[in-house]
Every structure is written in C-alpha cells, then in structure tokens.
Write a structure and sequence with these properties.
Helicase, Ruva Protein, domain 3, 5-stranded parallel sheet, 13 helices, disordered N terminus, disordered C terminus
C-alpha cells in the first residue's frame, strides 16, 4: 500500500499542485491549498497561523515549492528555539569579535536565504528589542551584521508562522503593530485536525506505512474499531500527536494488526461490520470516495489523481489492482447508473 503523498513531476507543474507530504482532501484542507496556490506565485509575505502540530512548516515548504523561487534556498529558523541573546546573530550574522565568543564570522539566515525563502517559525517569540530590525529588513531588504557597518542587500521572501494571537499581543504591547501589519499581508489559517476528520484515515495509512517501513514491520490489518477510535478522537496535538501515536501503535503491533494506541477507547456502541478492516480495503474505500467526489474524472487538475496526490498512471494502476472499475453513466443526469455494469478502464485518460 503506497501512501498518498502530494507530489508532481516536472512535466506536470502546470497541471497539478506540488504539495509533497500534505495528506488529505477534506474541504477545510482544500480551502487552505487554494489560498497557497494563489499567493505562492507572488513575493508577498505570508503569515501561517494555527495550533501546534497542524503542519505549518509543510505549508511553508509548499509555498516555496510552487513559487518562482523553487530551486533556490529554503532556510528555516525556529525563533523560540534560539536563546534571545543569540537570535539577532542567527538572523543577521556577525563579524569576528563582535561580542564575547564571536571567534569567527557568521552568516545569518537572511543572507543564506538570498534569492530564496526564509521561514521564521514561532515569529511571535521574537523579543521587542529585535522587532524593529526585522521590520527594517522586510521593508528595505537590507541589514548589517553584528559588529559591522557595512549594509547588505538581500532578496528574500518571508514566510512566518505562529500559534500565538499576534493581534492580541499587539493590544497588550508585546508585539509591534507595524511589524504585525507587515507580516500579516497574506494570512493563512490552518484548520486543526478535529475540523478535517475526513483526512484521518489517509493520514493513518500514511504513517502506518512510514513507520512500518522504518521498523521493518508488516502491518496488514487496521481493525474497524481502531480506525473509528482514531477518527473520533479530538486530537488536541493535531497531526503531530497522530504521528506519534501511530508510531507507538506500530511498535506495539502483533501479527500484522495495528492496535488502538489511544489511552481509552470510545465507550459507545458502534456498528462497524461494513467498515474497512485491512489496509487494502481502506485504500480502496479512499479511492472510491475520491472518485465519487469528482464524478470519476481521473486526470487533470481537478481529477481524482490530483486530489489524491498521485500520477494519473499510478492511480489507474491502483484501480486495476484493487478491482475498481468505472461505472457507465447511462441515466442522463451525469451520475453513475444504479444498475450499470462496470466497464474496463482505458489505457489512457
């Protein structure tokens, strides 16, 4: 079973999104990806907001990957992970002897990202004393290294991310309003996993394959009760929590069966006899659901292959392997005829 990773070959750039590793096709996620497609071709600053673990760095990568700067540097910095007294040096660099311990020249992240994209994660943690310098480089595209009077010009596209409410921080005087407005040119709000539950089965299968391959464990069955529990859980830690729990479940698996890694299972009675119980059945159900949603259009930017993030030929191969056939459209209203017999897939779409 292959994971549904969003990717595109060089010949498909004009037709399909290049959203590598972004799993899912829920309406909430699709709305975000539509915004990403609109802003990526510009040089505008993007502010990605969302709860911890929602995949902000993946969205930043996607913006870079489908922008004209693709192929140029993508440089990242987690502002919350750097001590405050070293953050300025990390951003702008320093000269030898600029401060105690500066035994050599250091190139900062803005210089490293020249002609490319700089991703500043947890931008809300930048201290007030440093915010004017960040504002200047965003507005003027110039700065000086610590210990130097030489001005450096750069061409950097900034993508920032935070899980904090910057507008509220502005009201409390903890964040400069002019910097906030400069960062908030194009805001992108990522939905929490609890608002895109349709994507949970695909994410589960992706992580099962990922960790199964890493640990050399063959996971063949996902019990319907386990998938229901995972789909019903509120996921306060979002995708990162899901990833960690699936890793735990793969470690605890026996005889190729994925156990329920949640601390407590749902107590309500649920009829699950018709739910998919194997990875093959789960994958088949996901493909059928997607095909129904696009009225069985396989190719093109709005087709099922693009929605699932695979090549058209790959999807056709999967459909044949899983015994999925296109229904005949004989009832005149554009929907599959209820009693229509399946017909063979063509060799090309």
């Amino acid at each position: 079973m292959a994971a549904f990773e969003r990717f595109v070959s060089a010949s498909q750039v004009s037709y399909e999104r290049r959203f590598e590793q972004i799993i899912g096709n829920s309406p909430a996620l699709e709305a975000v990806l539509e915004q990403v497609e609109r802003v990526a071709t510009t040089d505008s600053t993007v502010l990605i907001q969302g709860e911890t673990g929602t995949g902000k760095e993946l969205i930043a990568h996607a913006i870079h990957n489908i922008s004209p700067r693709c192929g140029r540097p993508f440089v990242r910095l987690n502002c919350a992970a750097i001590p405050l007294d070293l953050l300025e040096s990390e951003l702008f660099g320093h000269e030898k002897g600029a401060f105690t311990g500066a035994i050599a020249q250091k190139i900062g992240r803005f210089e490293l990202a020249d002609k490319g994209t700089l991703f500043l994660d947890e931008v809300g943690d930048i201290p007030p004393a440093l915010q004017p310098k960040l504002l200047r480089v965003l507005q003027e595209q110039e700065f000086e290294r610590l210990g130097s009077t030489r001005t450096h010009q750069v061409d950097v596209r900034l993508v920032a991310a935070t899980n904090r409410d910057l507008a509220e921080m502005v009201d409390r005087g903890q964040f400069r309003s002019d910097l906030y407005y400069r960062l908030n040119v194009f805001p992108v709000l990522l939905p929490p996993l609890r608002l895109r539950r349709e994507d949970i089965p695909a994410l589960v299968m992706h992580f099962v394959e990922l960790f199964g391959r890493r640990m050399d464990r063959q996971i063949q069955d996902i019990p319907a009760e386990t998938m229901f529990a995972l789909s019903s859980y509120p996921w306060p830690g979002n995708i990162r929590e899901l990833q960690n729990l699936i890793e735990r479940a793969v470690i605890l698996s026996n005889d190729g069966v994925l156990p329920n890694p949640l601390p407590t299972a749902p107590t309500q009675s649920v009829i699950v006899s018709k739910a998919p119980t194997t990875l093959r059945e789960s994958e088949r159900a996901l493909i059928l659901q997607t095909l129904d949603g696009v009225r069985w259009v396989i190719g093109g930017p709005k087709g099922a292959a693009a929605k699932l993030g695979v090549k058209r030929t790959t999807l056709i191969h999967k459909m044949r392997k899983l015994g999925i056939f296109r229904p005949s459209f004989e009832n005149g209203n554009g929907m599959p005829a209820a009693q229509a017999k399946p017909v063979s897939l063509p060799h090309s779409e």
